[in-house]
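Dock adenosine-5'-diphosphate; give full complex structure.
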Amino acid sequence: MKTVVFKCGGSTLDQLPNTFYETVANLHKNEGYQPVIVHGGGPLITSALSQFNVSTTFVDGLRVTTNEVLDIVEMVLSGTVNKQIVRKFHQNGGVAHGMSGVDSALLQARPAKNAEKLGFVGEVEHVNSGVLQTMIESGAIPVISPIGIDDNGQRYNLNGDTAASAVAQALQAPLCFLSDVPGVMYDQKEGHGVYEQLTIQQAESLIDKQQVTGGMIPKLRAAMKAVKHGVTNVSMIDGTNVNDLEDYFNGKSIGTTVERGEEMHHV
Ligand SMILES: Nc1ncnc2c1ncn2[C@@H]1O[C@H](COP(=O)(O)OP(=O)(O)O)[C@@H](O)[C@H]1O
Ligand SMILES: CC(=O)N[C@@H](CCC(=O)OP(=O)(O)O)C(=O)O
């Protein structure tokens, strides 16, 4: 069975075409693939926070998370967004099972570095692959919301990219980030020029030079971490573009791929 992890970014959720769900459901049912979905939901969390008059800030693309923020993050991610994706699969011929990283302690987490600034933001310590395996054997497409839990039952807000990377590492499966940009761009403001390939070192230097900002920082870091930990196929593509999706599913090189780079093979 060929497992593949898709991270559906919050930026793209409302614009993901039905063909995405149809194709993934078909790969699952008829082509021997096992898709695993990890999702975000940043923009929806931001609008829910504003409805509740709770202000929100980000540090390096990560949301500063107080307990009050965490309640709303969990409500939006594990409720609204998770079930929206499950319903979309249902409408498009797929069987999906939604769960959060809290359920059966799927995503065991600890406080992120910089916790004094970030509050209840976590990083994944361990992915409980047995839980995923059980869901996979039941014949479903797992749809995972990025909330983590520690041994004391404390919840953590995980960045969706970080969670997807941890899941891909645990399954040693290709990882595809679906976002609202065609990849990592040379000049994001001008909206053109995509790096087709980045080595870990090049990616690191783009972050240092602030050529990537906001949500692209955790995304690139998550991609680099997956590659460092043995994931051989990491892509970033535009989930809103039907042609790009089709190219990806047809095995064509599209968007930005992140690779170890020659220099890493000798280390
Ligand atoms: N160099 C860059 N190339 C592409 N996108 C970038 C770059 N720098 C910053 N970004 C921003 O990163 C965003 C993608 O991250 P994010 O909003 O977290 O997406 P998602 O919700 O899909 O995870 C893009 O919409 C863009 O605004
Ligand atoms: C810690 C942290 O920043 N968590 C994210 C979780 C959602 C997410 O990752 O959504 P995207 O995929 O849209 O970026 C947040 O609170 O927005």
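Observed: The chain has a mean pLDDT of 95.
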